[in-house]
Every structure is written in C-alpha cells, then in structure tokens.
C-alpha cells in the first residue's frame, strides 16, 4: 500500500515542529528555563507597548483561557509582568520583564542560527524562496467546492 503524499498544511506543521523542537532544546542546553511551545508563542505575539490576554489569544489562535494559563506560568517564571491598561480599567497589559526580554533576544538569535542550519541542509536559495513565498499575503481564505 502506498502512503499518500502529505498535504501542504501537514508539511508546514512538521517544519514548524522542527523549528520548535530545535529552539526549545537549544535554549534548555544553554541553561535557560524550560518553556512549552505555547509559552514560547506568547513572546512572538507580544507587542512593545504591552498586550492584553485577549489580544494575545486572538493573535495566537487559542482560547483566552489557554493564553491566560501560558501568561501566568511565564509571570511565575519571572519572564512576564502585568500592569494596568491605561485604556481600560478592566484590562491588564502583559510585557516581558528585563529577564524575559533577554531570553526573547536569545531565542531570536537561536532561531537565526537554526535557520542557518536549515540553509546549509536545503540551500540558502531554497530558504530565501520559502521565506519569500510565506511572506506574500495569501488573501482571504477561499470557499471552494472540491469533488
């Protein structure tokens, strides 16, 4: 029996998992506090002015409860802090602490090195083409009728 070819979403998910595994293992090997993939994703969704948990959840594509759990775990680790949102008395803004900012910079540098490893394996032209293709706005998701 022939195994069906993996579709593009499966391939993208596997590639993301490869980067996540490399990043988290590299950070642990460097002596950083272990975090989950979901906790690491919080940092990618933060903006410089601070971000509400609701905005983090929307950006990450998870429930507010899931984002809240990740944020509070990171607060407990000393990587994030929360402060009142001047625009809303009911909201709190989430920001990295100085330690969280340091760890995030290290993670960004680590990802650049991991991307370099990928370029060595598949070629820098392939990585550049992949980056270019993935940065083109795909537009609204299509509604299709497949046979």
Automatic annotation (TrEMBL):
Residues 28-127 form the HTH marR-type domain. It comes from the Bacteria. Transmembrane segments: none annotated. InterPro entries: HTH_MarR-typ, MarR/SlyA-like, WH-like_DNA-bd_sf, WH_DNA-bd_sf. This is HTH marR-type domain-containing protein. It comes from Streptomyces xanthochromogenes.
